[in-house]
From TrEMBL:
SUPFAM superfamilies: Class I glutamine amidotransferase-like (SSF52317)
Protein name from the UniProt record: Type 1 glutamine amidotransferase
Taxonomic placement: Bacteria, Bacillati, Actinomycetota, Actinomycetes, Micromonosporales
Keyword terms, alphabetized: Glutamine amidotransferase, Transferase
Provenance organism: Micromonospora globbae
Any Pfam family matching the protein: DJ-1_PfpI
């Protein structure tokens, strides 16, 4: 049975420095499943993606996080990259936006360094999660149980470690977005 996201709207929260493959592949996966994807960011215009530490292509921002309403979306994806989540976690509107998805029980996908924003939003306490290994201490200190697995799901929160995990991550976020709020 194919999973469909027809009629669903998924927010991708990212800023300059987003790891390109961690933005592009999940976006392609949800769009292929029928969802409308929107890039939400800190400023209007474009953001610059990176391939590891090398600058890559710009991507058009659909709406700023200051103007975005989490209530308009059925799910959220937080791609990684080292700089991207560091910019997001210091922005009060981004933190508010992320927290709103958890308050509503909506599914969220996060990969690599993306959980830094979850730590700032104080939404990982009591959850099982994975990430890029260097975030382990931050997540444990924020009350999460950190595990080293390719893809972890905890009550609508899907997490993965790195680009190699994208096939499992993409399949699981589509499944969780199709299920809806938890």
């Amino acid at each position: 049975m194919a999973t469909t996201l027809q009629g669903k709207r998924i927010a991708f929260l990212a800023a300059d420095g987003v790891e390109e493959v961690e933005y592009v592949q999940p976006r392609e996966a949800v769009e292929k499943a029928g969802a409308t994807a929107e890039l939400v960011s800190l400023k209007p215009g474009t953001i610059r993606a990176f391939n590891h530490l090398d600058p890559s292509k710009p991507y058009d921002v659909d709406v700023t996080v200051a103007e975005a309403d989490a209530g308009r979306y059925d799910g959220l994806v937080l791609p990684g990259g080292v700089a991207n989540p560091d910019f997001l976690r210091t922005d009060p509107d981004a933190v508010r936006f992320v927290r709103a998805f958890f308050d509503a029980g909506k599914p969220v996908g996060v990969i690599c360094h993306g959980p830094w924003t979850l730590v700032e939003a104080d939404v990982v306490r009591g959850r099982r999660i994975t990430s890029w290994p260097s975030l382990r201490t931050d997540l444990v200190n924020a009350g999460a149980t950190w595990v080293d697995e390719p893809c972890v799901t905890d009550n609508g929160l899907v997490s993965s470690r790195k680009p190699d995990d994208l096939p499992a991550f993409c399949a699981k976020i589509v499944e969780e977005f199709a299920e809806g709020p938890h």
